[in-house]
Fold these 3 entries.
Entry 1:
Amino acid sequence: MPAALTPAAELARHAKTPFPGASPEYDDARRKLLQEEIEFRRHMTRLTEQRRALPPGPVISKDYRFKDEQGFECKLIDLFGDKDTLVTYYWMYGPERERPCPMCTNWLGAVNGNAADIKQRVALKILSRSPVGRQYAFAQERGWRDLNFVQTVGDDYAKDLGLLQPDGEYPALTVFQRDGDQVRLFWASEMTKEMADPGQDPRDAPDIASLWSVLDLTPGGRGTDWYPKLQY
């Protein structure tokens, strides 16, 4: 049985504002916020444990095809390499787009900085309907060195995941697991725009985009009318 956790309110009493001159109102509000942050951290821990405890997901029975970095056609299971887990991100850079989605670009830029570490534990592939060479050309433009790009052959993969809609294409973060000679879905981001709260853009929880996580720490927050751009 896990050890009982110290109440968050008790832990928060250890807080000490790092600079002198804070008002009693600030100190009191900060301790209350810290208590919530501790509870949030614990909820996040429970959430990750619950995710890891998911029962086996459905077997991917459809024969999806891809083209790898060398231009060779391959199967989904081939994208695992020597790993048992495959993390994929389908980004909005289909052949009909002149330039990729700025939000996808922002997210991939942050992931590129961690990709070498991530790939020590799992396979990581970035998918698009565009040819691999086109994806790598943009990656070179951005200075990305550690991302591996793959082309989906045909539109079945994107259509089956609901990523191709009349109003355009959408991104998808999907995690697969090797099960012998089969591939199973482990987890997929499923917080669609229909699940967004009023006044908010669709997003996952936790929000794994470092851009928003950093801005959430600031007085102005994310704002309501600002998005990253490809160029400034």
Note: The mean pLDDT is 92.
Entry 2:
Amino acid sequence: MTLKIHIAEGAAPYEQVRAQIAEQARSGELPVGHRLPTVRGLAESLGLAANTVAKAYRALEADGVIETRGRHGTYVAAAGSAAARELAAAARAYGERARRLGLTQDEALAAVRDALRAAYQE
């Protein structure tokens, strides 16, 4: 696993760690089951505070990218497991809410496209 933190870059260091690990997991560079360094170990190697790396790990775990197995360590999770379930639940909730608000499918989809366009431009 290779991570590079650019302090001058606009993104917060924890977000850079989160984004790089997520991308490496998605691309297969970090295979499912790959054991990640400890929070302290990674923080030391990157010259960051342990809390910064811990925040990135918590976000990755919430997204279903990694899983912590207690004292056994932190590993790359099976692709799509928790993340896919969470995304499907959010999509169902959005669809139900859009219907209750009286939106057509086209209007609801347009709102999603706008939100995604804004989210991926950040």
Note: The first strand starts at residue 35 and ends at 36.
Entry 3:
Amino acid sequence: MNKSTKLWTIGHSNHPTDRFLALLQQHGIETVVDVRSQPYSRFSPHFRQSRLRDLLSEIGIGYLFLGDELGGRPKEPELYDDAGNVLYDRVARTRRFANGLRRLMATAATQQVAAMCSEEDPTRCHRRLLITQALLNDDAPPTVMHIRGDSQLVSESEMETHELTAGPQLALFDEDSSAPVRHRR
């Protein structure tokens, strides 16, 4: 990866269509990379894959689906613990995930890309807990910027600093720091 590569992330949340598209345009996003395992929304039909692709195309923004490779709800049962939590450390070691990261970053090397999932808050979403963390472990990590619903742009380094100074947060690891990251199915 090129050190100057940037990656944006965004959660579609329950934004109305015009608000979501305005957030993308405001930050100069050229391609949305959909990292949802299941590219639809029960409550916001405009975020179903085919409709979203059409809406983005209408305003000149590309769409790339990488949910099979980078989604937070993999199909393989061995990537879950007995309680049904996704084991992100195992997901991050799969060939499929590595290939998805390569495709994501190859696109980000030539365009302004936003990795999109459903959660507005990146601290609760696999786009940060899995994808961003894997990218930051690379020898030349990209600069990651999170587009928030209020249109603010928050860098990953600012999020990390805030977590360190904000006091207790939900831990990614158990007390012994060796337990894998988990996320409910």
Note: Strands lie at 6-11, 31-34, 62-65, 85-87, 113-117, 143-147, 153-155, 182-184.
